[in-house]
Write a structure and sequence with these properties.
Two copies of one chain form a homodimer. Chain A has 229 residues and is mainly alpha-helical. Chain A has a single domain, classed as Phosphate transport system protein phou homolog 2, domain 2 (Methane Monooxygenase Hydroxylase, Chain G, domain 1, Up-down Bundle), CATH 1.20.58. Chain A is built from seven helices and no strands. Chain A starts with a helix and ends in a 10-residue tail after the last helix. The C terminus of chain A is likely disordered. At the A-B interface, helix 2, helix 3, helix 5 and helix 6 of A face helix 2, helix 3, helix 5 and helix 6 of B. Chains A, B: Belongs to the PhoU family. Chains A, B: Its main location: cytoplasm. Chains A, B: It is found in: Cytoplasm.
Chain lengths: 229, 229
């Protein structure tokens, strides 16, 4: 009976890894879609999100079935409950990638991102994708050091986000209000996407160590996470 | 044994109702703070969010303890798992109210909202507060009809959000980019806050009827939720 249990638990873990892979790919492709004004790619990202949603529903159903059938306690129980939370983080990340793609579609054949912000948005998109790739790796390896790295990557995302805002606020901004609105929302989508990737990694840290990632980072003397807005 | 169980379950329900009350009050006060440029009120909302976070942590710990000790199955299990999700919705709503308050603090002694948008933002704030009040009532009464109302209120929020954007995009906009960015984020905060209130109500519907709220609304011929952005 315990063996079936661990098989089922593994398969929930596999589902999370697959979700992380899908949403990481989605944010990368959504970024390409918005920078290249690629409608076809945007549509593919938008349509693809239903697969993430299906995976989440499936994963939740299996987690609940597992709770009912096996009635785990202590660490095992914590793993299942945490899996439910991580699947919510990943599902929401998929929504955010979809939002980026929807903005690309809304502005097609124009691009929502002016030329002088292409490199910043590209960096944000790539960093978001890397963060999610690392979160997926943390899910597989349970590597606490790698998980703690994600918080520093998230600091880099905050810096990019701030750079984006500074550019917007610059007196020389000449792209008008609509583009300012688009870029503001875009910045927020990437920032939130990164937050969810960090959240997944933090939850793994908590499962492995029983301590919250913030406490471990303080011990390690790592820089604070900066102000979240 | 079953009695202790139902007492504990009730107390989790009470915790959710209390969270809904706190975040509903927070969004109302944050709205006042940003419209009146009231720094003291903004600080109070910002500081008050830790109470919501504490409640969530407490509620989660009790839910997990309940799962471990009582090992509920079927409906009871679904109630506990759903409570965990609702507490996450409510915690996030608290964050969003805090974001509104932080924006008020950032722009103090100015106000982030120009005069000609005061009434729209006031309406969004009031609607957000009402949505959360209804969500709290749904938690208490399990009233499915009331829960379905929330989706229509959310449509009203979408309309306000669109009106806000139209105002921003208007050629006569004269408040500059910084204010456009502030108003864009503000609109997003209210919209997301409303989404979480609706989500809480939907989860209650699912617990009571075993059907998703969308399906029930379709049966009732209610208008669709509109495009979420």
């Amino acid at each position: 009976m315990r063996d079936a249990y661990h098989e089922e638990l593994d398969s929930i873990g596999d589902g999370l890894v697959e979700m992380a892979r899908l949403v990481g790919s989605a944010i990368g492709r959504a970024t390409t879609a918005i920078l290249d004004a690629d409608l076809k790619l945007a549509e593919a990202v938008i349509a693809g999100d239903s697969k993430v949603d299906d995976l989440q529903r499936d994963l939740e159903a299996r987690a609940i079935a597992l709770l009912a059938r096996q009635q785990p306690v202590a660490t095992d129980l914590r793993i299942v409950v945490t899996s439910l939370r991580m699947s919510a983080d990943l599902e929401r990340s998929g929504d955010l990638a979809q939002h980026v793609a929807k903005l690309a579609r809304l502005r097609f054949p124009d691009t929502a991102v002016p030329r002088d912000l292409h490199s910043t948005v590209l960096e944000m998109g790539q960093l978001a994708q890397r963060l999610m790739a690392k979160a997926g790796e943390v899910l597989i390896t349970k590597d606490v050091d790698l998980a703690l790295q994600l918080e520093q990557d998230d600091d880099a995302m905050d810096l990019l986000h701030r750079a984006l805002f500074q550019h917007l606020m610059d007196d020389r901004w000449q792209h008008g209000i609509e583009t300012a609105v688009d870029v503001t929302l875009l910045g927020r989508y990437y920032e939130r996407f990164a937050d969810h990737a960090v959240s997944v990694a933090k939850r793994v840290v908590y499962l492995v160590t029983g301590e919250h990632a913030d406490e471990l980072n303080q011990t390690a003397g790592a820089p604070g996470a900066g102000e979240s807005s």
